[in-house]
Write a structure and sequence with these properties.
Shape: globular
CATH superfamily: Winged helix-like DNA-binding domain superfamily/Winged helix DNA-binding domain
Helix content: 40-55%
Number of helices: 5
Distance between the termini: 48 Å
Structural class: mainly alpha
Largest sheet: 3 strands, antiparallel
Radius of gyration: 17 Å
Number of strands: 3
């Protein structure tokens, strides 16, 4: 199932950022991309350990969506016990490259920094 937040029409997107957010939106997808970047092929259990706090249901759902969006490749091997590996497609690798400046920005940001609170209203 492809992630769609807007109607599938030619003028549905305002800029490229909204297209990207449809693909990577949410709490976990960027972390899954990171985990797949650090090693060419990962099994489901490895991904679950590398993304602490994610449930199996959410991981499976996100992997299906990312596969449908063309950024993750799923290969199932005909073995006993069954083995499935996930990796980045060429588009997934390009997406990770595009996200790298955001990662650099995040690593340089002081921990715990938040936007100032608005003044109280009387």
């Amino acid at each position: 199932m492809t992630t769609l937040n807007r109607p599938d029409t030619p003028d549905a997107h305002i800029c490229g950022i909204d297209t990207v957010m449809e693909v990577i939106g949410g709490k976990w997808k960027v972390l899954i991309l990171w985990a797949l970047e650090t090693q060419p092929r990962r099994r489901f259990g490895e991904l679950r350990r590398l993304v602490p706090g994610i449930t199996e249901k959410v991981l499976a759902s996100h992997l299906r969506e990312m596969e449908a969006d063309g950024i993750v490749r799923r290969v199932a091997y005909d073995e006993v016990p069954p083995r499935v590996e996930y990796s980045l497609t060429e588009d997934g690798a390009r997406l990770n490259d595009a996200l790298e400046p955001l990662a650099v920005w995040g690593r340089g940001r002081p921990a715990g920094r938040r936007a100032p609170s608005p003044p109280p209203t009387v």
